[in-house]
Amino acid sequence: MGLLLLLTSTLLSSYFHPGIMVDAQRIFTIRDITLSIEPSTDVARGTNVTARCKAIVSSLGQEVLSREYTIYKGNNKVYTKNSSTSEDLLYPLPDARVSNTGKYHCRIKIKGEETDSRTEKLTVTGLSKPVLHLDKDVFSEGEEVTATCTAPGETGSIFFYLHEGTNVLREGLINANHFEAKFRFSRVGIHRLHCKYSVITMPDSFMSDESNILSVSVEELSIKPVLEIFPQTKIYEGDHLNILCTIRNLARPDNIHLYLSHGIKLLSSGNTNVNHSIVALASVPGDFECRLEMGNVAKVATKTVLVTELFSVPTLTMSPAEVFQKERMTLTCKSEIASERLNRGELIYTLEPPDSPLISLTPGVFSGKALLYDFNYTCVAQAKGIVKHSETLTVCPKISVSAPKISVEGKAVLGQPFQIRCQSDIGSLPINYTLLKGFDQLSTISVRLSQPALFTVTITKPEEIKEYMCEAKNNHKNAPLSQRLNAAVIEPLMDPTLTVIPHLPEISEGDHLYLICGTKGTPPVTFKWYRVGNKQPLHTTTSDKNNTDYRVPNLSKAHSGTYYCEAVNYANNIVRSEKVTIEVRLALWKKVVIGGVCLLVVSVLVVGSVLYFRSKRVRVVRAAVSVWSERPPEAANDEESSVVSSEPDVEYTEVVHPQPAGTARDKTNQHFLGRA
């Protein structure tokens, strides 16, 4: 029962631990792996160091599992071993060196399962002192030297340095503890050499002390170059120089070369001697060199030759200093005689290029007309085979200024400052422009760039603008005038008016209203109509006339209000008219309708009143008839006379509905009707 529980527990834990392997025969787990460095992680050079890799592995069964150990230094494998025991793996580092410094860790691998230990850093301190050795201590000039620098007992990647004083002669990186260098000394005398090295342990490096110092003696060879120049004194331009380059104390002619140079120019070369001849020139430095090369040895002999010139380098001048196209000019070429060996008559002057349009008047003087374009001239002076050139003189003929063009810059506004532009199409700079009014000079502007002259003026009358002209001048004898200024003058607006059609008392509903805005000044004019109370204009238009209208169709009472207009032109002065109050009256047909309605109402009232009074009288008659009809006839007869006499002026009219004949009422009505 206990064995079953153990197997069950082991199988379950294998799902959660990567170091556990389960197969049909064997169950194990790598519980831990550690790396330790003995005796310490910090040791001195020469210490015996051991890296111990210890693994704790639990397995089912008595048999020890086979395992593979690997020791790493950084990312590099340094040791691998297979083991079938549970003993620790020991990696020895006997007689440790600085090159063993680094970070170590170990890895165990069982049945494909791997586990790494933590990293431990080993630091080894102390380097051996380098030793420098030379094949001999005395050398001849140019002889090869072999030097060997050794780092005793050191291992790994080592960078060596070979020094003479503070200068590095040779250096190199090798995987050995010694470094060999071959070289030659370029100068004679005593040379002191030493070396040192650096052990590279990425990413660090450790520098050693300096080695022993060795002294080397370099002896000069007796062989020397010899340079001879003839003549040796009083050398003048044109003299022929014979130059000889030879060797002194030549023991054996093997591997020897001679080179003869003048400045940086190689004149000739040879093995044992070199001979060369040239013409002496004062303009060329007389520095000559004879160079001897034998293997890596080079020796030099130099001489400087002073040459007296026969005549100076010519100078070329022009008169006048400024010349205009097609004007006469003179070029003068002059050279100073510097030696008694030369007469002035022997000196010949010419101009280059040969096709120059100038002709020679006297020696060194050339005359002619200036060309229409720039031209380069060079004076050539020659005597006794010596040719000298002057510096190139570029003649730039000036262009006479053309008649300037005059115009207005922007707009010319009456009473306001504006600019007059004056510019010539062609003409050499600088150009002086002068503004004239009539023939009076107002001001002058000097222009040194290709740009116009701008003058600021103010005029008070339109015709005044035609009085302006400008003059252009650029040191030429001619000073052309422009034409008179012809430009439009903008008169500022003034006296704005607002005219209303129809006349104010005649404005009625349904009419078309015309608001005519007019002003004095130069068109085009921009007009704006406003109604008091509105910030935005009712209408805006630009006209080429001094007046225009704004039409308001089909007036209504809502159009009543106060109106004004504004006007502005290129003078940018805004003028405003007087305000006009407009009252829109009723339309004529509305007045007729209202009058007719009033007459109708009066007529109805009159007719009604008449009918009312008549109806009142009829009621009185009816009442009287009713009384008479109720009395006896006798009483009626008795009273008839009194009734008639009492109302002699009253007429009675009654429209009575028909009654049956013979009744008392009928009789009474007939009585009254008869009276009426």
From TrEMBL:
InterPro entries: Ig-like_dom, Ig-like_dom_sf, Ig-like_fold, Ig_Fc_receptor, Ig_sub, Ig_sub2, IL-40-like_Ig. Coiled coil: none annotated. Keywords: Disulfide bond, Glycoprotein, Membrane, Signal, Transmembrane, Transmembrane helix. GO terms for biological process: cell surface receptor signaling pathway; cell-cell adhesion via plasma-membrane adhesion molecules; immune response. This is Platelet endothelial cell adhesion molecule-like isoform X3. SMART domains: IG, IGc2. Residues 1-21 form the signal peptide. Residues 496-581 form the Ig-like domain. It comes from Lates japonicus. GO terms for cellular component: external side of plasma membrane. The chain crosses the membrane at residues 592-613. Pfam families: Ig_3, Ig_C17orf99. The lineage of its organism: Eukaryota, Metazoa, Chordata, Craniata, Vertebrata. Residues 655-676 are annotated as: Disordered. GO terms for molecular function: transmembrane signaling receptor activity.
